[in-house]
Every structure is written in structure tokens, then in C-alpha cells.
Prior knowledge:
The structure holds 2 protein chains of 2 kinds.
Chain A: H1 4-8, E1 14-15, E2 18-19, H2 20-43, H3 48-72, H4 83-108, H5 113-120, H6 124-133, H7 141-158
Antiparallel strand pairs in A: 1-2
Chain B: H1 4-27, H2 32-53, H3 62-87, H4 92-99, H5 102-113, H6 120-136, H7 141-145
Amino acid sequence: MTSAASESVSPPRTLAGMPAWLAFSLLTILLWGAWGVTSKIASEGVDANTNQVFFTFGLLPLVVWIWCAMRFRPRADDTKRSWIGIGWAFITGILGGTGNIAFFHALVAGGKVSIVAPVTALFPLVTVILAVAILHERLSLQQKCGLALALVAIYLLSM
Amino acid sequence: MIPSWVIFAAIALVFWGITGVTQKLSTNRISSGQSFLWFAYAMGAISLVLWLFVPMHWHVTRLTLWLAIAGGMLNGLGALTSFAALESGGKASVVISLISLYPLLTVTLAVLFLHERIRVGQGIGIMLAVAAAILLSMEKPAAAAE
Lengths: 159, 146
């Protein structure tokens, strides 16, 4: 295709015969969906704190991969340096890791992963509340409905 | 009496919920790659503290060890593929809503392979939770553009 239109608007990237964004989204569902189950099986044989240490070992190959990609094939935004941004990313890791430990404790304490996973997946509830309180964002109608549904869901799932 | 797993799940929900804001504050200033690296370094710091100050139980079966390590890899890879989905031209509202379906896969796998049973009330709760997660991720257009 050599038309001006096709030159000015690049075709969407595809992966496995579908738009790349859809393929990556489905892959994310697969990866995170499977994570819940592997965590539950692992929790039968290891305590929550040790599980978190093993979890971190699992991140190591990805750290090496991303580090190499940024070192040898940096993108334009990879050169941006902001200690505040780095600080927030580090805090995200601390909070995420602490959340992980609590998640593993929930599984070790006998919580079914089929219940714990949907409950913890409601974390955008807290994000939305904080976004309103701290970032002064406004809630959409859908988010207000989501908030109400989330509270009912938590009640039903914790019974 | 609230079961302990509910309290721990609530703690995870709150901490992961806060990361939704801190991650946004981070990726507004640095690339998703840098953000991932510093996120992982913080995970390393937590593990180091646990290793030094909390009794560890290293005597685990090989299966448990590899599943726990695979957990970290699956979770981290999921974070990277979610970034990739957003960077491949997917609208944030669509991508994040779609990704919010992941607990449905966990539930399906848990029922099929772990033989977990779900009561009717819990089943309704699961459907509502997934619907809520999708709705919560739908920002106003102006807010999404910020």
C-alpha cells in the first residue's frame, strides 16, 4: 500500500492476528489469572513472608530484561530522569509488596483464591477514593455505580 | 467475628489501591520501564528486610518453590503486558476494563483444578466485583487525559 493515507496513518500493530493492544490485554488476563492459582497452591507449603521473597526472585529475570532493553535500546522517554518519579515508583513497590504479603497471608489463613482474588481485585475502589481526595479528580457516573457495586460485592464475598 | 483472611484481603486491597495513585504519579514523570525497575528494586528491599529480620522457612518442596517463583514472574510479566497494551494504542478505559476480568480466570481455574466450591451468594459477589472493577476503571474523558 503506497497511498498517502496509508503513509500518514500507520496501520495498527497486530499480534497473533488481532490488534496488539487486545493480544497484550488478553495475555495480562492469562498471566494475572494464573498468578492467583499458583499463589494459592504455593501458599499450602510456604508462609507468606517466605513466599514474598520467592516472588521477588521471580521478578529478577524481568528486571535484567528491562534493564538491558533500556540500556541497549532506550526509548525517548527512558532518558527522562525525575527523582520524584523514581521515589513514587519505589513507594509503589513498597506498597505493592506489602499488599502481596497480605494477599499471601489471606491465602495461608484459609481464604479461597476464588473469593480472595475478586475481593482484592476491587483495589481500584481505594484508588478512586484517593484520586478524589488527593488528586481532586471527579467521579464519573460509572465510577459511582462501581463504588456502590464494590461495597455490595465485598459484603457478599466476605459472608 | 470476621475471618482473618478477610482482614488480610482488605489490607491487600487498600495497599494495592494506593499503588494505583502512586504508580500514576510515577509514570507521569518517568517511563514505564524505569517505573517497573524501581518498583522491583523496592520489592527487593522488602525481601531483604524480611530475610534479615523475619524467620524464613526455606524447607519447602520443589513444587512450592517453583510455583512461588513463577508467581513473581507471572505477576511481573502481567504488569509489563498491561503497559504494552496501553502503549500499543489501546484506550486506557478499554484496556483496564478488559484486564479487570482476570479474577474470572482465577475463579475458573480454582474451581476446575483446586476444586473450590462457591456458594450462590459468593457467585453473585464475584460477578458484582468484576462489574465493579470494570466500572471503577472508567474515568471521565477529561480526567483520563490528565
